[in-house]
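Self-study notes.
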Amino acid sequence: MIKSAETARERILTAANKLFYAEGIRAVSLDTIAEKAGITKKTVYYHFKSKDDLIEAYLASRDQPTSISSGSGLGKPKVICRTRWRQSSAR
């Protein structure tokens, strides 16, 4: 079965998210991200020009509201969780 380009990009971002969080951005190589995502390094470069571009996309995804249904915060959220954050930050 051939995976779509969107799916590969999401898998790259999901792998990067987990690895960057666990090991730090500087410590993780594109080889490690590709291996974790189950794709080739060439596919990573197809979606991102450089590690800096991947980091930019990773940081942008972290700025998005999280979804209760998808847990990763990388997909389209079905239920926005900003209300609780605003309530807790107002204290």
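Second protein, same conventions, sequence then structure:
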Amino acid sequence: MLEEFERIHPGLADRIVAMAEAGVKADAQDSKNHWRSHLIGQAFAFILTMTALGLGAFLVYNDKDIAGLIPLIGGIGVIVNSIIQRYIKK
């Protein structure tokens, strides 16, 4: 099939192959960038959730029950939501 392109226009087959190779390289780079941003997002979510849980526990420990329960419920809600979403996708 590439011989026909080469017959129509010399060098066309090489250009088509080079374009396909460049597309594969771009797809690989996009996949790598997606994986990296996904990992960074998970790390930030973990840090924020642990901070909320820690702040809530600290406030409850220091007799600030209502103010402490708000971040505790929020942090637990994030964890429960991620578990529910994992089972919904399956």
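Instructor comment on the second fold: Residues 49 and 75 are 5 Å apart (CA to CA).
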